Amino acid sequence: MSVIANTPKPPYFAVIFTSIRTEGDEGYGATADRMVELAEQQEGFLGVESAREGVGITVSYWRDLDSIKNWKANSEHLDAQKTGRKSWYESFKVRISKVERDYGL
Amino acid sequence: MSVIANTPKPPYFAVIFTSIRTEGDEGYGATADRMVELAEQQEGFLGVESAREGVGITVSYWRDLDSIKNWKANSEHLDAQKTGRKSWYESFKVRISKVERDYGL
After folding, report:
1. B86 φ/ψ angles, rounded to the nearest 5 degrees
2. Inter-residue contact B20 to A49 (CB < 8 Å)
3. Closest-CA residue of chain B to A86
4. What tens digit of pLDDT does each residue of A40-63 get?
5. Which residues in A lie closer than 8 A to residue B93 (C-beta atoms)?
6. How many angstroms away from the CA of B48 is the closest CA of chain A?
7. Do strands A12-21 and A55-62 pair parallel, antiparallel, or not at all (unpaired)?
């Protein structure tokens, strides 16, 4: 996902997911791709940006807090979250934030 | 910066800076390092996370909007912003957001 998300005018919401991976793939790559595909189909999804270089940072953008709540509760996503905690991530942090202003080039 | 920022309890603020670089270094690497060093000295700075993989994502965390405003107006940072627009970045987006909730592993 090497693009800058084309988000609408603020306000909207950003979920900042920062993680340190464990060694080995263990099905991580395929699931990560699938989660992006699945997220894109969710109501209220606005875009996603992702990069890993030592630390991994994935920022997904959402219309409102309800969209984020629904995505968190998606059953296929719940399975991925479970495996993430158990085997893919050494540590991670999820931050739910409200984008109030943006500008760019 | 391959660590997850050790931020305090929300609320606090996140500046999500997403960018696509131009070709060549043109002094970018040294300035990027210097900007992290300088940001860390600013009042209200809480941490930073950064990764580049196609797209670059740097998320810096701040106590309040005034800290962000002061950092944006820092003279050495202003010079870097100018060169960034002129030569380092093909495109970028800055999003100012308020972190309302976080959790992790």
Report:
1. -80, -40
2. no
3. B105
4. 999 999 999 999 999 999 999 999
5. 4-5, 7, 102-104
6. 11
7. antiparallel
Structure token digits, residue B76? 């050495």
Termini Cα distance of chain B = 19
Instruction: Average the pLDDT over B80-101 and give the result.
Output: 97
Give the whole-angstrom CA distance, residue B17 versus residue A32.
22
Q: What angle do CA A81, A87, A90 make, to 5 degrees?
A: 95
pLDDT tens by residue, B36-55: 999 999 999 999 999 999 99
Q: Which residue, chain included where needed, has tokens 């464990």?
A: A22
DSSP string, A5-29: ----SSPEEEEEEEEEE-SS-TTHH
Q: What is the rounded CA–CA span in Å between residue A67 and residue B18?
A: 23
pTM of the model: 0.96
Q: In angstroms, what separates the C-alpha of B8 from chain A's closest C-alpha?
A: 12
Instruction: State the Cα–Cα distance between residues A4 and A22, nearest whole angstrom.
Output: 27
Query: Cis omega (within 30 of 0) on the bond before B11?
Result: yes
The residue assigned the tokens 């093909």 is B90
Alpha carbon distance B4, A2 (integer Å): 21
